[in-house]
Design goal:
The complex is a heterodimer of chains A (about 350) and B (about 325). In chain A, the strands form two sheets. Chain A has a nine-stranded mixed sheet with strand order 6-7-8-3-9-10-12-11-13, with helices on both faces. In chain A, strands 2-1-4-5 form a four-stranded antiparallel sheet. Chain A has one domain (about 10-345): Rossmann fold. In chain A, about 30% of the residues lie in helices and about 25% in strands. Chain A is of the alpha/beta class. Chain A has helices at about 60-65, 90-95, 115-125, 130-145, 160-175, 190-210, 220-225, 245-250, 255-260, 270-275, and strands spanning about 10-25, 30-45, 50, 75-80, 80-85, 100, 180-185, 210-215, 230-235, 235-245, 315, 320, 345. Chain B has a domain at about 110-295: MetI-like fold (Orthogonal Bundle). Chain B is about 75% helix and about 0% strand. Chain B has helices at about 1-30, 45-55, 60-85, 105-140, 145-160, 160-175, 190-230, 230-240, 245-265, 270-275, 275-280, 285-295, 300-330. In chain B, helix 4 (about 105-140) crosses helix 7 (about 190-230), helix 7 crosses helix 9 and helix 8 runs antiparallel to helix 9 (about 245-265). Classes of the chains: A alpha/beta (about 350), B mainly alpha (about 325). The interface between A and B is medium-sized, with 29 and 21 residues.
Chain lengths: ~350, ~325
């Protein structure tokens, strides 16, 4: 944690996003795809929280539900003191400028019939009084900030390369001076040389503008590079939430351990000794998650209790939260901290 | 864009020449002959003279080339002569109908206004009905409005115009007596009353055709809206905090209109083609009715000329649709 007394900018409590499954001619409600099933975490001001996990684990859904691009099934999302999940449409639109999103696919997320200036400038017209030249000046300023040539303001998105398009997307997100940006796999659609540019740009902007990021990615090395803390998701729930260095050095949750063992090692001598943990079987369907621990069907250490009781996400050492029965909370481990603080818990998935 | 248009226009020339040959031969080789219309009581030498007068004794190739010359040179020249008082045509023979011995283009000139007012209004009305239905159906997919719109489209698609037309006549003309059953071609609009009478006699044929047109276009509009509604850029617009109205009417609608405008443009030639069944049903003396009459009478020059005019219009509006596409969608460049 970067600060001694960091302020919580985003507080997510027991967020659930269930998509209904209907079947039959009468479209009866047959069940739910539990894309996100009781997720709780905080994001402190100025930090980058990485959110990693395999495809389909609900990372992007968390990001979208956070900004209420989906209507969450239940739970609360407090951003800067306001519960986003319960706002009316009008109030929601008024605070949209505070929170923005950089989307995964820079091609599809830009309206093909609008010029760059129109794309960046549209929210300015909607939320600020900027008109005419003042607006154009702000558009140019934003284009400078993300390293786009001003002369391109009147071109259409299709005329740009992937990296440039993602810069347009970032400039667009920055237009209203947001405090919190959800980066939903912003680099997944870019090739490696461009990925570094975009990630460095995001870091630069964070330093200059004091932004707070939720960085969603499946690229573990990139998350290691940019994030301060990392949450590992599995099947709609958080398995482990730890500071970056601690997590990468010593993952505690069995799933986090398996996931991080997949990161290749650049040093060939070390790489040859890297031991990859291969999990057996497939991810269970989020429409029908296993009873007990979500990971129990594939966990190498699973015990009978795992199939019955869902482990809560507990703080096991200061700053590290793990949802596993076999990572015991180390109370008063270091002697300095302990007792009441360590028992602060982020419960998940209790009231199903 | 200009070079693209010119290139396409040049390419259209061989296309149209080929189409003209196919049309000419198809119509000419089809069974049935104008000679069979001459009563058997006419003596053989008179019969021979009649055939010679029509030029029907010439070989097919000669008649084709003659017809081409008349279509592309004599008719335009006559038209220009009529406008500016010149004498380009020099009194050469125009394309004559075998039926009436009068120029085919004169007949078309007399009939096209009826067709354009009735079928054209129906097309316009159909589009105006279809777009809002399509937009709202997509916006509220699977709502009762959408279901009703789907039912409406299905009826419009599947029920033929001779049925809907007859039904409308029975309900509104016979039963309620609001509108006349027949379209009176001799009616000229001179004052308010005659204008009202004109609107009333147009109502039923226009409604019949508009229903069929609206059915197809509303489906295109709906599916195009649905395509775009799920696009990422729509989510971007929402994330920007734009109002729902802006999201739907600016972002989604403008992108959805691109294919729909093309479909609408491609449908315009059918207006000129008239509506054979509906025109006959309501007694509208339009192009469609003329075509059917000419087919019955084995009036080859009229059928060939009308069919070829439709072909020209279709080629032309295909080009217009392509150009519109290029203008509306910045991703498409014709260089």
């Amino acid at each position: 944690m970067p600060d001694a007394s960091p302020r919580k900018l985003v507080e997510v409590r027991n967020l659930k996003m269930h998509f209904p499954i209907t079947s039959g001619i009468l479209r009866r409600h047959a069940g739910d795809v539990k894309a996100v099933d009781g997720v709780s975490f905080d994001i402190f001001e100025g930090e980058t929280l990485g959110l990693v996990g395999e495809s389909g684990c609900g990372k992007s859904t968390v990001g979208r539900a956070l900004l209420r691009l989906y209507e969450a099934t239940s739970g609360s999302v407090v951003i800067d003191g306001v519960d986003i999940a319960r706002l009316g449409q009008k109030e929601l639109r008024r605070i949209r400028p505070k929170m923005q999103m950089v989307f995964q696919d820079p091609q599809a997320s830009l309206n093909p019939r609008m010029t760059v200036a129109a794309i960046i400038g549209e929210p300015l017209a909607e939320h600020t009084g900027l008109r005419g030249n003042a607006r154009l000046a702000r558009i140019h300023e934003l284009m400078d900030q993300v390293g786009l040539n001003r002369a391109f303001a009147n071109r259409f998105p299709h005329a740009f390369s992937g990296g440039q398009r993602q810069r347009i997307g970032i400039a667009r997100a920055l237009a209203l001076n947001p405090r919190f940006i959800v980066c939903d796999e912003p680099i997944a659609a870019l090739d490696v040389s461009i990925q570094a540019q975009v990630v460095n740009l995001l870091e630069d902007l964070q330093d200059r503008l004091g932004l707070t990021y939720l960085f969603i990615s499946h690229d573990l090395s990139m998350v290691r590079h940019i994030a301060d803390r990392v949450a590992v998701m599995y099947l709609g729930q958080i398995a482990e939430l730890s500071p970056r260095d601690a997590l990468y050095a010593n993952p505690l949750h069995p799933y986090a351990r398996a996931l991080l063992s997949a990161v290749p090692e650049p040093d060939p001598t070390l790489e040859s000794s890297r031991r990859r943990i291969i999990l057996a079987g497939d991810v269970p369907s989020p429409a029908n998650p296993p009873k007990g621990c979500n990971f129990c069907t594939r966990c190498p250490q699973a015990q009978p209790v795992c199939h019955d009781v869902k482990p809560p996400l507990l703080e096991v050492t200061p700053g590290r939260h793990v949802a596993c029965h076999f990572v015991p909370p180390i109370t008063a481990a270091a002697g300095s901290t302990g007792g009441p603080e360590a028992s602060e818990r982020n419960r998940q998935g209790e009231d199903r | 864009m200009l070079t693209f248009t010119l290139r396409r226009l040049l390419l259209a020339i061989p296309t149209l020449l080929f189409i003209s040959l196919v049309i000419f031969l198809l119509v000419d080789l089809a069974p049935g002959s104008p000679m069979s219309e001459i009563p058997l009581t006419v003596p053989p030498e008179v019969r021979q003279k009649m055939i010679e007068a029509m030029g029907a004794d010439q070989p097919v190739l000669v008649r084709y080339l003659l017809w081409l010359r008349q279509f592309f040179w004599v008719e335009p020249a006559t038209l220009i002569d009529g406008w500016f008082g010149t004498s380009l045509a020099g009194g050469e023979q125009r394309i004559l109908s075998w039926q009436t011995r009068s120029p085919v283009f004169t007949m078309i000139g007399q009939r096209i206004p009826q067709t354009l007012t009735v079928v054209g209004t129906a097309y316009l009305l159909g589009v105006l009905i279809a777009l809002p239905i399509g937009i709202y159906s997509a916006y509220r997919q699977y709502s009762w409005f959408d279901q009703a719109g789907t039912l409406f489209a299905m009826i419009g698609f599947s029920v033929p115009t001779f049925f809907t037309g007859t039904l409308l006549i029975i309900i509104f003309a016979v039963g309620l007596g609001w509108f006349p059953t027949k379209y009176d071609t001799t009616l000229t609009v001179t004052d308010w009353d005659s204008f009202l009478a004109h609107v009333r006699q147009m109502a039923l044929p226009v409604l019949t055709l508009a229903l069929a047109n609206a059915a197809a276009i509303s489906r295109y509009m709906r599916s195009s809206m649905l395509d775009n509604m799920g696009q990422d850029y729509v989510r971007t617009a929402r994330a920007k905090g734009m109002s729902e109205r802006t999201v739907v009417l600016k972002h989604v609608l403008r992108n959805s209109l691109i294919p729909v405008v093309t479909v609408i443009a491609l449908g315009i030639p059918s207006i000129f083609g008239g509506a054979i069944i509906t025109e006959n049903l309501f007694g509208v003396n339009g192009i469609g009715a003329a075509l059917i009459l000419a087919i019955h009478a084995n009036d080859l020059p009229t059928v060939q000329t009308l069919a070829f005019i439709f072909a020209v219009l279709i080629v032309l509006f295909n080009l217009i649709a392509d150009i519109l596409y290029g203008l509306l969608d910045p991703r498409i460049r014709y260089d």
